[in-house]
Design goal:
The structure holds two protein chains of two kinds. By secondary structure, chain A is an all-alpha fold. Helix content of chain A is 90%, strand content 0%. The longest helix of chain A has 36 residues. The termini of chain A are close together. Chain B is an all-alpha fold. Chain B has ten helices and no strands. The longest helix of chain B is centred in the C-terminal third of the chain and has 34 residues. Classes of the chains: A mainly alpha, B mainly alpha. Chains A and B meet through helix 1 and helix 2 of A and helix 4 and helix 10 of B.
Chain lengths: 84, 236
């Protein structure tokens, strides 16, 4: 039961981190396209920049949370590597 | 991810981050100063080489110093240090993106006045043979918040992936950072006017800031992905 829980949590961390980064990269590409299309509008600049900050902040938040979890629970990785 | 994949990633990151306007500007000032004094082609090439070696040496020294700091930390200490470096990188990247939209307003990556004055003094006013080496060092200091941070991030990354020879990786990364300057040096030595390269640099500044901002953020995310074990780097 305990081993299954550890394996599941590590798997979830990996899935969550990957999805956060890939999702953010896709959204950032969209932001760049919008910024390139409407580069002369000051209002659009503000919205695009705020969206970029939001997307980067969200993805960083997910990565930070998962990394801090790993740092504070090193046994999770250790047991996973040992195959327990 | 394999070591080959990591190498390719570092090369791409290095080439894109090397498009930092301040580094190109200092190099072009050195070239313009040297050509303006009527130096021979060999001496101009020697100045360019001195700049490249100065920059490469400063990058290598910074990266290795941080590598040894990471080695001296405990396992959890190194992980916390990596988190701090990643957060600094992300903040630096966001400031660089802000500079793409509104350069110079609020918090900005504009080089410090003292560094700009030093660069001008050694590139244009007072000429000594050692200046080109010194300017290479100054150019890294002028881009400390982007390229300097990226060197720390790479050194941290190399520590976590257990790279056997971080020296070689740092030299490769430093060379990738200099790719744009190398292209400029080749163009100038083949007869292209410094003013033409300078115009290209001025026209490309916003794109350079945008790409280096995104690249800094992606590099920081890559570090966090390695620290939280999502990405494991293997030999093959």
């Amino acid at each position: 039961m305990g081993t299954e829980l550890i394996a599941t949590s590590l798997q979830q961390i990996h899935t969550l981190s990957t999805r956060a980064v890939l999702g953010a990269v896709l959204l950032l590409i969209c932001c760049v396209l919008v910024a390139a299309l409407f580069q002369k509008s000051e209002v659009t600049k503000h919205y695009v920049f705020l969206t970029i900050v939001g997307v980067v902040g969200l993805a960083t938040g997910v990565l930070l949370a998962t990394t801090l979890y790993i740092v504070q629970n090193p046994d999770v990785v250790l047991l996973d590597r040992l195959g327990l | 991810m394999t070591y080959d994949g990591l190498l390719l990633t570092l090369l791409i990151v290095g080439i894109v981050l090397g498009l930092t306007p301040s580094i190109v500007a200092i190099f072009l000032a050195l070239m313009a100063g040297s050509l303006g004094r009527g130096h021979s082609k060999n001496r101009v090439s020697a100045n360019a080489l001195g700049f490249l070696l100065g920059f490469l040496g400063a990058t290598f020294a910074l990266g290795m110093a941080w590598w040894y700091v990471m080695q001296s930390l405990s396992a959890s200490g190194a992980q916390y240090a990596a988190i701090v470096i990643a957060l600094l990188g992300i903040t630096g990247g966001i400031v660089e993106l802000k500079d793409y939209f509104w350069y110079g307003k609020g918090v900005s990556h504009r080089p410090h006045k003292r560094i700009s004055a030093l660069a001008h003094k050694h590139a244009v006013k007072k000429y000594r043979w050692i200046n080109s080496l010194y300017l290479g060092f100054i150019s890294l200091a002028s881009a400390a918040s982007t390229i300097g941070l990226s060197v720390l991030t790479i050194a941290t990354l190399l520590y976590f992936v257990g790279a056997a020879s971080p020296q070689a990786w740092l030299v490769v990364y430093g060379t990738a950072l200099l790719f744009c300057v190398l292209v400029a040096a080749v163009l100038i030595s083949s007869g292209t006017k410094v003013s033409a390269v300078l115009k290209w640099k001025e026209d490309s500044k916003p794109v350079m800031r945008l790409s280096s901002g995104f690249m800094t953020i992606l590099l920081a995310w890559l570090l966090l992905l390695v620290v939280n074990t999502t990405l494991a780097v293997q030999a093959s």
